[in-house]
From TrEMBL:
<keyword id="KW-0812">Transmembrane</keyword>
<dbReference type="InterPro" id="IPR024623">
    <property type="entry name" value="YtxH"/>
</dbReference>
<dbReference type="InterPro" id="IPR052928">
    <property type="entry name" value="Desiccation-related_membrane"/>
</dbReference>
<keyword id="KW-0472">Membrane</keyword>
<dbReference type="Pfam" id="PF12732">
    <property type="entry name" value="YtxH"/>
</dbReference>
<keyword id="KW-1133">Transmembrane helix</keyword>
<protein>
    <submittedName>
        <fullName>YtxH domain-containing protein</fullName>
    </submittedName>
</protein>
<feature type="transmembrane region" description="Helical">
    <location>
        <begin position="6"/>
        <end position="25"/>
    </location>
</feature>
Length: 88
């Protein structure tokens, strides 16, 4: 999860730098607004892709943990049944 935070931080920093660069660049207001709009759209698309990847990774981890838990539960049940048979 730390990698995701780093990626989001880097993307956020790049976006902030791009917006500041556009704001301080000498250009007409109309052009500047268009550049900000375009950069914002790019940032939104990148964040959506990163978030989708993050969700997919979390889903895979959940499935793995769920499968491991089921396996442990089945093993525990088997051991209990085995011990109960020994006691009879």
């Amino acid at each position: 999860m730390k990698t995701s935070n780093v990626v989001l931080g880097v993307i956020g920093g790049l976006a902030a730098g791009a917006v500041l660069g556009v704001l301080f660049a000498p250009d007409k207001g109309k052009n500047t607004r268009k550049k900000i709009k375009d950069k914002s759209k790019d940032l939104k698309d990148n964040l959506k892709e990163d978030f989708d990847s993050f969700l997919l990774e979390m889903e895979e981890k959940y499935q793995s943990v769920s499968e491991n838990a089921k396996s442990i539960i089945e093993e525990g049940k088997s051991r209990i049944e085995s011990e109960l048979k020994k006691m009879q």
